[in-house]
Amino acid sequence: MRNLRLRSALLVPMWLGSALLGTAAVSGCEAVAAGDDFTQAYDGYLNKCASCHAPGAAGATAGIETTLDFSTADTARASLKTGSAAGLTGNQASCNGVPFVVAGKPEQSLLMAVLDENVRQNLDLASHAGCDGTAATDMTIRVGGADADAIAKVRAWITAGAE
C-alpha cells in the first residue's frame, strides 16, 4: 500500500508539469516544447538533410538551395518557414521561388513534396505551374526514405501552422 501511495504522489507532479507546458504553448510563449512535431521529425529524420543542406556540408552543391540550413532543429525550422527554393537548375528550375512550407497546407509545401511520393505526384501549384510531380525531386533517395512517422510529424507541424 505504501508503494502505491508513492507512485500516486509522483504522477501528480508529472501531470501538472505537462499541463503547465501545454498552457505555456497555448498562451503564446515563444519557447517550443521539446516534444513538438517538428523537433521529433528533425531528430528522427530531417537532421539527415544537413549532409547537404548546411553551411560547409560535404554533399552541398554550390549555389543550390542556399536558403536551407538543417544544421540544427532551430535553423531548419526557421529556414523552412521563411525560405523558398532557390538556385535550382534543369527540370527543377520551375520550382524556384516555391515556399518550402505553406503554413496549414502540407499539399502545397515543397518540403512535403520532396519527402512524400503522394504529395509529389499530386503537386499542383497555381503560382508555379511548372513545379509539379516531375519537377519536384525525391530527396529521400539521398539520405534514405522517410518513414511514415516522420512524414506524419512534418505534415502535422505544417497543418498546425508550422510554428
Description:
It is a single chain. This protein is an all-alpha fold and 163 residues long. The protein folds into two domains: 1-31; 35-159, no CATH class. It is built from seven helices and no strands. The protein has helices at residues 2-26, 37-44, 73-82, 110-115, 117-121, 140-143, 148-159. 33% of the residues are buried.
Given the structure, what is the number of helices?
Answer: 7
What is the C-alpha radius of gyration, as a whole number of Å? 19 Å
Please tell me the total number of domains: 2
Mean pLDDT: 80
Say how many strands there are: 0
Distance between the termini: 45 Å
What structural class do the secondary elements suggest? mainly alpha
Shape verdict: globular
Helix content percent band: 40-55%
Q: Note poorly predicted spans.
A: 1-34
Strand content: under 5%
* Helix and strand run: HHHHHHH
Q: How many strands, what sense, and barrel or not for the largest sheet?
A: none
Short description:
This protein has 163 residues and is mainly alpha-helical. It has helices spanning 2-26, 37-44, 73-82, 110-115, 117-121, 140-143, 148-159.
Question: Which features characterize this protein?
Answer:
globular, single chain, disordered N terminus, about 160 residues, about 0% strand, mainly alpha
